[in-house]
User: What shape does this take?
Amino acid sequence: MANDSKFTNQKFKLVGTRVMRPDGVDKVTGRARYGADASAPGQLVGAILRSPHAHATIRKIDTQKAEKLKGVKAVITSADLPDFTGGEGELYNVLENCMARGRALYDGHAVAAVAAVDAETARRALKLIKVDYKVLPHVTDVDLAIKPGAPVVQPGVKTKDKKAAPTNVANVTTYGHGDVEAGFGKADVIIEKSYKTEQVHQGYIEPHACLASVGPDGHGELWVTTQGPFAYRNWCATLLGMEMSQLKVTSSEIGGGFGGKTHVWIEPIALALSRKANRPVKLVMSREEVFRASGPTSPTSIDVRLGATRDGRIVAADAAMRYGNGAFPGIWGEVGAMAAWACYDIENVRSVGYEVLLNRPKVAAYRAPSAPMAAFAVESTVTLMAEALGMDPVEFRLKNAAREGTRASYGPTYGPIGIVPTLEAVKKHPHMRARLGKNQGRGVACGFWFNFGGQTCADLIIDVDGTVGLSVGTVDVGGARASLSLIAAEELGIPYEEVRCNIADTASLGHNDMTDGSRGTFSSGMATIFAARDAIEQLRVRAAKAWGIDVKNVSWKDGKAIAKGKRKSLTLKEIAEASPNTGGPISGHSQVVADGAGVSFASHICDVEVDPETGGTKVVRYTVVQDAGKAVHPDYVEGQFQGGAAQGIGWALNEEYVYGKDGRLQNPGFLDYRIPVCSDLPFIDTQILEIPNPNHPYGIRGVGETSIVPPLAAIANAVSDAAGVRMTHVPMSPPRVLAAIKASRAEKAPTG
Amino acid sequence: MSSQPPPRKQIVRMRVNGRWREDAVADHALLVDYLRETAGLTGTKTGCDGGECGACAVLVDGVAVPSCITLAARCDGHSVETIEGMAQGGRLHRLQKAFHEQLGAQCGFCTPGMIMAAEALLRKNPKPTEAEIRSALSGNLCRCTGYVKIVKAVQIAAEAGS
Assistant: This one.
């Protein structure tokens, strides 16, 4: 019973209410401490020298002058780090990305680092390091990288045949079922279209930052902004040859991550500098470094083929999806291929993901990684098909949407899911009936995300005054403490304010997987429920002991132990106060692999106005409808919906990595890489649906990521509607929209 | 490498959150570094180092400025207000209260700068329209909220009056 994760449809007293967050006052007063806000006695300042070349052999690094500069306490290069050459590939890749070994693979790749008494000295020391580069040809475009004769990024990488020549395609994965070609044979209408999306960055406002300290005894501490203190601990310890238990990692408050803080970038370097200098080292990225050398998402190039019968039934679907991975192999094309057709019930379906290596930074997760680009290509084509068939795009989607029992294109058979309800809600939404103004268009698109559970551990302590401390190992990216405190209070039957949620460090709690995959509330929520139920077991034992009866005759209700058949009860507070004399401290613990994450669907509606003279665009109205499973804290669920939509709007209309012919990033700053500002955006409306996840006691799915999946397509459909020309290249920046309008006019103009 | 003399410093007197301070400050020291490292006021954040994100916004003589592109020495003799000076006598300022209650902070990193920019607006324009709020905050980037609950928080604070 205690650890049964099945949905029970219980009535809630607290879950679903809009309480104040416990960390709110810290965040509005400046007391909250982020990655760069910690200091240690004797701390040094670290700085990293980065390659100005997209691709180069490093012949020699001369650090002598830098080492002799007064105030410099340590200089390191790859020679100071373990060499995993010939060993485990992923270890090699992660460390080589943190510090180049013999070759620089992208503009911004770290080649050396210093620790000095102050930032000024550190910067001067970097200028004294001489690196002898032999510049090599480079490639930064996904389509060019797969052409024969393209510069090879990783000579050791071969697609399948190990005897073949090296290639930039690190892996190819295929998903789907049925007979795709036979399916197209049955189609009355076939639409084929190619799409491209440019590389974008998560754009968290807090740059990567950490404070590392390794003593002469080899014990270390790391304070760091991260989505995964345990994962960072494991990576750093393994890369530096430390025992995991000798390195304590504490996650600071996190100033946004969105997937970009699931990977180590500067942390092993800070620890290595500290070990060499024998002093604490603070290392903080500049914004330029964040853009050039952290982990943006993939640029993509996707071909889609869709076949349907005249009555509006999709009979075949196929997608070839090339995802840029940056300079190191990843899984991004595969994830895109898995997500591509997940919204639909299709008999004959295929998607092929290609992992393409480029002289760009190592790609990291960005909120529902790989799914927005897949949805852009698929949902644009779905709308084109509806238009070709003369059907309403929402009706066409409803007719083909996945339902309970549908076999998903990536393998599993769905349980109860929310895509049909979100489409029905869109159909009924007043937004769909609002009149469009001049030069305005409307678009609709669906989105899917898997969500994730994973290893999770929680501790719940009952203090002697009857208040409760909850320790979890997922970080608070925007309200987790409030949601998890609500869950603990709900289980125990005590007021929300009497629970205090703490984000534990790696020395204080068992392993927790990273805070990714929209898993924070789903999995730490599950662990919290089980930890609370574990504590309740003990509270019942103490009450039974006090009454001298069998524990079987004691139940727990509304924060009280109640003796069966007798008018006796003891409150949690009373049991807690007596605990020193009834068996000592009372605490609950749970450790689970939180399986059964509920897949999540969303449908978005978007109105865009296009200026036909400039190609400028403005989103004038935006509505998000998404299935949350159960909204534990509706305000934060809305916040996730709105934030994801806003990031999607930026991606669709403005944001892109611009590389020059020299392979250097041209716009590594917020001035030229323009994320949406307050005056760019409309009010973003939200509608929360709750289709319970059968595999969570409260029905929780995950909510964080799905909201970024539909916007590229919803906006592309709206811009195409407004401009009268199909947009196939994201971002739909003014020059691209204007070029498309002009090309379309030229095509339509009478010749002669 | 011959040792170079440390960078030149001068005594700078600055009124920080109502109290005068006097510190030796390098000529090229930035206000944000002075506040965070010399005065220990880490509520002011560095998000971009180029005046592009607004996380470092503070008030200098009541006007919101990006402290990451302001020299500390330029503030000699002037009044600087940071997020730490907003709550008075243990009570949250109306903007802090509204951001807290309307959940205007998600990750919270942009929040101090956002509140300072909003304070500058409300001092100048106590009853701003939504468009005026959006325009005044357009130098402050937030990546979490889509600005919805931030705009709402400023509206609620404006209604609450000073």
Observations:
- Chain A has 20 helices and 27 strands.
- The first helix of chain A runs from residue 24 to 29.
- Chain A has three domains: 24-32+457-509+519-593, 35-136+207-254+261-293, 300-451+598-747.
- The longest strand of chain A covers residues 314-326.
